[in-house]
TrEMBL record:
InterPro entries: ATPase_NBD, ROK, ROK_cs, WH-like_DNA-bd_sf, WH_DNA-bd_sf
Family membership noted in the UniProt record: Belongs to the ROK (NagC/XylR) family.
Organism expressing this protein natively: Kineococcus gynurae
Organism classification: Bacteria, Bacillati, Actinomycetota, Actinomycetes, Kineosporiales
Domain of life: Bacteria
Gene3D superfamilies tied to this protein: 3.30.420.40, Winged helix-like DNA-binding domain superfamily/Winged helix DNA-binding domain (1.10.10.10)
Protein name as it appears in the record: ROK family protein
């Protein structure tokens, strides 16, 4: 633990100042002094470590806040870069972003997930270093690493927990391993939770209850409750992909069980069904999405039916969670309106009128790379946490130092 040597209170420290600046509630020294209840000179002391570290900039732009115009304070998105990693079943993206999730460099890798954690993390670290080098960013501080994995993740521990398609990762200390190379904060989460974070931050920050469903090769979901992602006790909250859905023949699932939602509507399952219907070219979610986009009748019919089954599971979740908005993401959600049409059909049939009265059901606003954006937002939320910033700056450390709290 980092010992604080300052006498800041939680509600008037530099962390709180950053929060007011980033939320737009205070953009000048005058407004900040008023919001924090501080004299101008005391405020200057609070701002000093923020300005010195480059995390906050005082720009030439003048803002009028009633009295005489004063210079604008803003978060500097280039104060540090984030290494954002989206590990996928088919490809892995390693990106360097700024603190606003703008991508500055990117590498796309084809990794075999069963190669095991050490080899994969080394490959990822090498790709990140090359991306930093090529984009001339080696001198910029790394604010942190955000990593999304197609597995159940114990978010606090930074480890995979339990069964996943990533064999050999269960219990492996991912955070510890990456920290040996990078010495920066490392945030590891399930890929669907990461996408949920991205969706909420970017498109629905004002919404308190959001349910996100990803339908690609696999199926998963994440939820925002009272403004925060809810991960549950073991990090698998909202994983509807392997919940049983009866009445559709109980096919074999990848997890070993039968009749899981994913075994009925996941991209691999649809490809399996269509292949059986004499479409030998169907191998994965991408093939299904491509054929549906082209209007191929069997693919469209299958996708719409999958939408109805998915809608049954989503309706159940909607009744349980009463969200403001349900967002549909993933490769298959981007293959035309067929899936969404099926989902809507089931949800309005099966949900309580009170649940659906104000409910919005929308496709994701991301065309791609929500996993990268979400990984950056995880790091950003962590490093800008007011209590954490107060602890580190109070101890004379930089804003991107490692803090075990
Ligand atoms: Zn399953």
């Amino acid at each position: 633990m980092v010992a604080a040597v300052s006498s800041w209170r939680a509600d008037d420290g530099p962390g709180r100042a950053v929060e007011l600046i980033t939320s737009g509630r205070a953009r000048t020294r005058t407004a900040l002094a008023e919001a924090l209840g501080l004299a101008r000179s005391t405020l200057g002391q609070r701002l000093q470590p923020l300005l010195a570290s480059g995390l906050v900039l005082e720009s030439e732009e003048l803002v009028s806040s009633g009295g005489r115009p004063s210079r604008a304070l803003r978060l500097n998105p280039r104060a540090g870069v984030v290494i954002s990693i989206d590990v996928g079943e088919e490809r892995t993206r390693v990106a360097i972003t700024d603190l606003d999730a703008a991508i500055l460099a990117e590498r796309v890798l084809t990794l075999r997930l069963d190669d095991g954690p050490e080899e994969l993390l080394e490959t990822i670290s090498t790709a990140a270093r090359q991306a930093l080098q090529e984009s001339d960013l080696l001198g910029v501080p790394v604010a942190g690493i955000g990593l999304g994995l197609p597995a159940a993740v114990d978010f606090r521990a930074g480890r995979v927990s339990g069964w996943s398609i990533m064999s050999g990762w269960d219990g492996f200390d991912i955070r510890g391993h990456l920290r040996r190379t990078w010495q920066v904060p490392v945030l590891v989460d399930n890929d669907v939770n990461v996408q949920t974070v991205a969706e909420h931050h970017r498109f629905w920050p004002q919404v308190s209850h959001l349910f996100y469903v990803k339908i690609g090769t696999g199926v998963g979901s994440g939820m925002v409750i009272d403004g925060c992602v809810n991960r549950g006790a073991q990090g698998v909250a909202g994983d509807i992909g392997h919940a049983h859905v009866g009445g559709h023949g109980d096919p074999q699932c990848r997890c070993g069980n039968r009749g899981c939602l994913e075994s009925l509507v996941g991209g691999w399952a649809l490809a399996r069904d269509l292949r059986g219907d004499s479409h030998p070219q169907m191998h994965d979610a991408r093939d299904v999405a491509r054929q549906a986009k082209l209007g191929e009748v069997d693919a469209v019919t299958r996708l719409r039916a999958a939408g109805r089954i998915l809608g049954e599971a989503v309706a159940f979740s909607a009744n349980l969670l009463n969200p403001d908005v349900i967002v549909l993401g993933g490769l298959l959600s981007a293959s035309g309106d067929h899936l969404m049409a099926g989902v809507l059909e089931s949800i309005y049939q099966r949900s309580l009128p009170l649940t659906t009265r104000k409910l919005r059901i929308v496709p994701t606003g991301y065309r791609s790379r929500s996993g990268i954006a979400g990984a950056t937002y995880l790091v950003r939320d962590h490093v800008l946490d007011p209590a954490r910033l107060d602890r580190l700056l109070g101890a004379g450390l930089g804003p991107f130092a490692v803090d075990e709290n």
